[in-house]
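User: I'm curious whether this sequence folds into something compact or stays loose and floppy. Could you predict its structure so I can see for myself?
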Amino acid sequence: MAYETAFHRRQTYKGIGREINVPVGQFDYTTLPDLNWGTYDQEMTSYIDSKEMIDGKEVVTRNRIPYPHSKYIVRDDTNFPLGIVGKDYVSVQNSEVFSFVKGLGEFDLDMVVERAGIMEGGRTVWCLCKMPSLSLELGTDALESRLLVANGLIGNRNYIVIPQTRRPSCSNFLSMIVKGRNGKVGLSKGWSIRHSTNMADRMLEARTSIIQTIEAWNSTQEIVEIMAGTKAPDDFIVDLIAATFGEKKGSKKGDTLAENRNKAIYRNLQSETSKGLTTEGSIWSEFNAVTEWLDHESIIRSENKEEARFENNLFDGPSIQKKERAFDYAYSIAAALA
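Assistant: Here's the prediction. I'll summarize afterward.
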């Protein structure tokens, strides 16, 4: 492919999870110890001591009191309690998640399981699938597709299926661009399936939605080509930054952080992730200079920064909301000028 020389940024998910790279139909999670486990429910109880005098001696009796409204979710390989959920919570097992992933080959024979892993000791299980058949070359620039499948095991997140795109030159992730029935263009929210007794039916709905995602790729191509083929107006990057991040904080610290952020975005525009590519100077390129900062350089406060950045970029962190604002503004200008 023409864009293979344009891999400049370190991938967001390097060091996160396990590299797999096998066709989805051949993926066998049971061979991977960090994924081959399940959970079981354990009753929550407390103990109350009661005292009484028997034959002149104080006797302490420990009484077991069940707590009927909540339960523990426990890993069956380590017997480690992952967390506490309500009594009606219905668990989705890793076997169900990866069986779902394996079945995706029905919709895309070329799809491969790229990476899979856990976060927070198993509280979230995730899988990232690459869809080579859904890719777009823009000269020396490009766009690839991924499908993120993830499940929270303790009510920390729903079972989610989110179509993603990745720009190889800067390793930026973006939710797939879709066009609604009303013609409105935006970033896909994917599908979020609650843990409930009708979980199996909801997962079937998600399979149908994946087919719709694949069909929507034509819209994604059309929109990206408009943005990539439209020259950015003068001072577009200034207006884009304002639309994405809002007004300055008005404090010395806030102004300094904003100034440093803007300098980094301008550096992205002059770096090999933008400079020299066939899309240089386009609205697409300047939009990606902003999302590149969000993915790779935004401030992350966490003990495990790599895991937190991965979650922030692909799941539902603050960066996702800013990317939505950046896209809405960038596409509105591109559509008006096209």
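Summary: The longest helix spans residues 318-337. The radius of gyration is 24 Å.
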